[in-house]
Amino acid sequence: MHSPFFVISCPYCRNALSCDPRMGGQVVGCPHCRGSVITPTVTPTMTAPAPAQTPGDDYVVFTVGRKPVGRGGNRGSNARGTRILAACGVLAIGVLGIATALWVSSGSKQQGGLPEKRENLVETPPSKPAVQPEVRPLSYWVGELREPEPRRSKAIEALARNRDSLPLLISAMTSGDVETANGAIAAIGKIGPAARAAIPHLTAALDNPVLRRSAVVALGDIAVREPTALTRLISLLVKYEEDPTVILPAMRKIDDRVAQFCGRLVQIDGELRVLEAQTKLAEAQFRRANAIGDAAGVQRAANDRAAIAKKRAVLFEEAETVLTRAYALAEKGGTM
Question: CA distances (Å), 16 to each of 11, 13, 53, 66, in order?
Fold first, then answer.
């Protein structure tokens, strides 16, 4: 039989522990708090009968380093360890959050503001140096007028920017090469009013069918009122030598009053063309009615022809008046 047990109190959790007298002076583990307890040495005089042990009572039969046996030994220690680990995790997360906030705040201050203002710190790329215009002699650009696009347009722009090119351009108009002459006329027009000295040469170019349209446009671009040029433009319009949609815009730039009279001439011409078609229709109706012996039809066709002839006479009279005023205004420069 085993020696009788004796009872001691755990110095940490104050729970009662039953000990075997043979373990006196040894270090044992408390099954409640896992604390290390040194059992006292029991002498025969200290031995006292211990209460009877039941299978359900707490007892200690191990030393340090051995697994405890008894009720509640593992369950209490595991719960306490879980709580400690959870507390450490919460503390670590809190410390990490505070450190992150401090780092972001210090980074924003070093960059001169909040993150949304970082676009102010983006360096703009250095601007490209301005392209200097190509410097070439005027004779080179005149030679480029006969070349295909875009070289021809580039030459016209280069010559138009230099007013000293005007004498050379006037000479190029009579070079005999159609492309060069038309290019020179276009460059003269782009010079504008400063090319007034070229107006007589442009007026003379109106007689050349291959240069006429370019000369009309150039006179409108120069937009200087010159009687000889205006009267020549009116003549081109009346004789149908050039498209009215080209002449009238040029006239408006030179003298809007003359352009209004010429515009009315174009309208009268359109109305006369309509009456001419109506006259042909009335004559056909007259011949058909006469052929079938329709006296009433013959009379109606005769009346239609008379009415049309009267309208044409009125329009011809108006056209003559408008044309006279247009010429007078172009030659004298007065207000009619």
Answer: 10, 9, 13, 20
CA distance 319 to 121: 74
Rounded to 10 degrees, the C-alpha dihedral 259/260/262/266 comes to 130
Query: Residue ranges of the domains in the chain?
Result: 1-94, 137-200, 256-336
List, in order, residues 6 or more apart from 40 with CB less than 8 Å away: 8, 24, 25
Residue type, 23: M
Q: What is the mean pLDDT of residues 218-226?
A: 92
pTM of the full structure? 0.55
Q: How does DSSP classify residue 25?
A: T
**Where does the chain have alpha helices with state H?**
73-110, 138-144, 151-161, 166-172, 178-191, 199-205, 212-222, 227-238, 244-254, 256-292, 295-332
**DSSP assigned state of 136:** -
For the chain, give the percent of residues with pLDDT over 90.
Answer: 48
